[in-house]
Each structure stands twice: as structure tokens, then as C-alpha cells.
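Renewal narrative, Specific Aim 1. Our central claim is that a sequence can be written position by position from structural information alone. The example that follows is taken directly from our test logs and has not been curated for this report. It begins with the C-alpha cells describing the chain, in the order in which they were read.
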């Protein structure tokens, strides 16, 4: 059953930190807010990719990362937690990065989703270490960028392997 996470009392939904940090409310959906945030980033990514290509997606990733540092930091400070699960701008910035690096095909973008979510949930070293090492908004954001890089390199490896084997 889908339900919504309540916001901290002093942060109304219309506050810019809430809108950015939760990706317009996608992170408030339960269960699996990170997956919802990643999914809700796709329509924006498709439109951006078609309109401006990979460079536009990369620019969106950088903008989401920069804005996410502030928004995640503010949201988590008010929520009195290090990394609130409803903050999903980190997933948004990361999936934009992955999509910018891969071909704009349904198969590649499906693989991007699966690989990114795999590494974001599993958090192998050094992703998990980065999550514990850094604090504040930067700490919320950086582990997902690391998971994005793992997803990109895994896709490239699997793509090369596929070419060699076929």
C-alpha cells in the first residue's frame, strides 16, 4: 500500500528546500522513496535528453547536485537527521549523470535504472564509506554520485563484454 511521509512541521510543502529535496514530493511516497525519486526523474530526463542531448543531462545533473547540497542539508537539519529517506534529489542528480553517459535508447536507460538502483541500495565499498565519511547536504549527495559512476562503468564493461561475446 502506498502512503506518504509527513513533512517536518516547520517545513511546508511549498518551501523550496522541500520541493527540491523531495523532487516535488516523489520522495514522500512509501515504500521505496529512492526508487520513486529515480522513476519521477525519468520524464524530465527524457524531455531534457531529447531537447538538449547528453550535455543538457550532464548540466541538469550538476545543477541538481549543487541545489541538492543546499536542499538536502536544509531538509535534514530541520528534520533532525543525517540523511532523511524522503530526500531523493541525490537519486535525481545521480540518474541524470548515468543517463548522460549512456546511449539514449530504452534498453540503455532501463539498464541505467537497474544498475543505479542496485549500487545505490547495495552500497559496496567505497560508496558506503563515502556515505559515512561526509556530513550535511554534501554527504547526502556524494554517495549517490559514486553509485552513478559504478553504474556507468558497469554498463560500459557489460557493453564491451557483449560486443566481444557476440
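The sequence written for that structure reads:
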Amino acid at each position: 500500500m502506498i502512503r506518504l511521509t509527513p513533512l517536518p512541521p516547520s517545513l511546508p510543502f511549498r518551501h523550496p528546500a522541500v520541493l527540491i529535496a523531495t523532487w516535488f514530493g516523489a520522495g514522500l511516497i512509501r515504500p521505496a522513496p529512492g526508487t520513486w525519486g529515480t522513476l519521477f526523474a525519468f520524464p524530465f530526463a527524457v524531455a531534457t535528453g531529447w531537447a538538449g542531448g547528453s550535455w543538457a543531462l550532464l548540466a541538469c545533473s550538476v545543477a541538481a547536485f549543487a541545489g541538492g547540497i543546499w536542499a538536502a542539508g536544509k531538509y535534514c537539519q530541520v528534520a533532525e537527521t543525517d540523511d532523511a529517506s524522503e530526500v531523493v534529489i541525490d537519486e535525481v542528480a545521480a540518474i541524470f549523470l548515468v543517463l548522460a553517459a549512456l546511449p539514449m535508447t530504452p534498453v540503455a536507460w532501463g539498464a541505467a535504472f537497474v544498475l543505479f538502483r542496485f549500487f545505490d541500495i547495495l552500497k559496496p565499498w567505497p560508496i558506503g564509506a563515502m556515505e559515512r565519511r561526509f556530513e550535511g547536504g554534501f554527504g547526502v549527495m556524494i554517495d549517490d554520485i559514486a553509485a552513478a559512476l559504478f553504474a556507468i562503468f558497469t554498463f560500459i564493461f557489460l557493453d564491451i563484454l557483449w560486443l566481444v561475446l557476440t
